[in-house]
Amino acid sequence: MHANAKDFKQNAHRALNDAFLQGAIRKATQRFVNERTHAVAERPDFEALRERGRAIKQEALDRLPDLLQEFEDNVISSGGQVHWARDAEEAQQIIVRIARNAGVKTIVKSKSMTTEEIGLNPVLEREGFVPVETDLGEYILQLDDDYPSHIIAPAVHKTKEDVANIFERRLHVKNPPEAGIPGLNAIARKALRGNFLKAEMGLTGANLACAETGTIVLVENEGNICLTTALPRIHVALVGIEKVVPRFDDLSTMLMLLPRSATGQRLGSYTSFITGIAKNGEEGPEQFHVVLLDNGRSRIYADEHLRGSLRCIRCGACLNACPVYNRTGGHAYGWVYPGPIGAVITPQYLGLAEAPELPYASSLCGACYEVCPVKIEIPHMLLELRGQVAQGTAQRAPVKRPFLEALSFRAFAFAAQRPALWRLLSGIGRRVLRSKASGATIPSVPLPVLQDWTRDRDLPTPPADGFLEQWRTRRGNKGDDA
Amino acid sequence: MTARDLILGDLLRDAPRLVKPRVESADLAALSPAVSAFDLEGLIERFMARLTLVKGEALRARNMDEARAAVAGLCERWGVRGAACSTDPLVQELGAQELLAGRNLAVQVLDGAESENAWRSELRAASQESREPNVPWDLAITGCAGALAETGSVAFRCAPGRSRSGWLLCAGHLVVLVAEQIVPDLDSLFTGGGALDKDDLPRAITLVTGPSRTADIEQTLTVGVHGPGRFAALVIG
Ligand code: SF4
After folding, report:
1. Number of Cβ within a 10 Å radius of residue A107
2. Which atom of ligand 1 is nearest to the CA of A261?
3. Which residues of B touch A287 (CB under 8 A)?
4. pTM value?
5. Superfamily of structural domain A43-297
6. Is the minimum CB–CB distance between A400 and chain B shorter than 8 Å?
7. What is the pLDDT of residues A21-62, one digit of tens each?
8. Where are the domains of chain A?
9. Which pLDDT tens digit goes with each residue over A113-129?
10. Reported ipTM
């Protein structure tokens, strides 16, 4: 997918001025947050489950090379084939080769962040195949040449009128306004049903992969993944190497966590365990291919501070909890993975220089960590990345900050080390700011840097006395025990 | 060097040298106390309540006669014109095929690859020619390999004569089960001989929880997007 992660500020600014988007995101995230709270409250042992989830995924990372080989062996022994792809291009080539060898034309696809990540659809189209997204949200986006803005609700930024227009333009079917959303739904169902019945190949991702049995697990609500894995004669699953868990019964724990965290459901409408090809007259494909994708994951793996981000099961709970995502929506993050987890992994997939602002797209409030089913320490990782942006690492030079910003930080450091100067400047600063205040907040400050900062937010009015003065007064009151 | 060797080489270089002792499932289980056990009646109640919450219909019959009456009532309510039956023993014991035929409904028994292929070809032809299929498939009747009280789900194991598309492509799906098939929670499906027995895995096992649904357009819940828009479970016993 084309990445545009460099301009978080600019993208965010655009989103902040879009009233529909603001309402739609808030509605979706609020709904997910409420349902999740409900579902979690129902399991008094949810904290223990989270700890189990963390431990399982951490063990999986610690033993990753072994587990991947075990997974490979078991896929093969159940009749499947395994391919390894170091990057997006290799994965594209492998999938194109499978499709070409089998002489397929129509390829039905289920929602998969991983296929978005490798930008698969344009490549398949260029090679003469017809890839059809079958998740309703993804289908709408494909018809409109758009891309997802939420991991779970990809088309959250579209209105029903948008969708009606898209269907009319691309499918030449008009939805009478009184038919409403169920009408739109029916149009998509009909158009896609034909594709399911004629497709020769089905393409999916995987929510989980189990080393012990070579099984992949797919979670969904619509039934499109069931059809994609049942009807076509070839099934290809593109699976990130971090998806593997050691044992079959680990899947149970992960499945108690995933839907509850994602949508607050106890289970999605359909949870499928797929193992190998169809055997002895079962329904299913004659070929089952798993493409194991690295595409930067081994690089993340090499960084001890950030390795834990590979535990992510893409539930989207951190997006819903995040005050920044709640205002900017997913497109502001400029690549496939939005929200707090996107702010951590996008700079690593694309390189820090391609996304230097993302580690700052957070107030470090910690809400993401609180809800994460596998306890990823996102705030710590964002701080680590900020450090890498500012100081660089052995492999990377520091990213250049804007001149004025760099200068301000240097001035701050200079003053903060000189108490007398600090007292003088902060006294003047407080007085100037208080003169601009209206009540508890200052709507805008006509000074460089602060002017930018207050464009999208209010600054709290500083108290008349600074910290040092207050400290001294309190210490005075308490006697000299401090 | 193949991509496989390169990826594994990268990972091996960075994998922790000293892997902490493997955390065994038993230790993990100790962290999470099992959901309190129910008696059978409690399990049935919970299963039915949870299924209703996800917009499924939960039906109960004490014996086979009541069960047949419940199926007839459902066909009436859903306005069923044609149905597809699987070859599950319980569906046969119920005599679903005769029951439906007796009500003058078109019945198709999907008993293996041949009948499934014929059925799907007809559906494909209908879709390509933009016409209705020769029989409107309003209902699929199947059994299941187990049911979950905690979530109101049923487990469907594919086998010859038990295809997933057999119910996915119908507008409604009725699952019949006996009460003893209900287990408390997901963990219990994974243990010894349950529906998710790891020593005997077919191509696909699907846990079905209510009807097919989506909220992809303006967060508005709609049922029946790709799979059946109506889902019912009939508990016998
Ligand atoms: S980081 Fe945690 S909360 Fe966020 S998507 Fe991944 S698993 Fe879910």
Report:
1. 24
2. 8
3. none
4. 0.90
5. NagB/RpiA/CoA transferase-like (3.40.50.10420)
6. no
7. 888 888 888 999 999 999 999 888 899 999 999 999 999 999
8. 43-297, 403-475
9. 899 899 999 999 999 99
10. 0.94
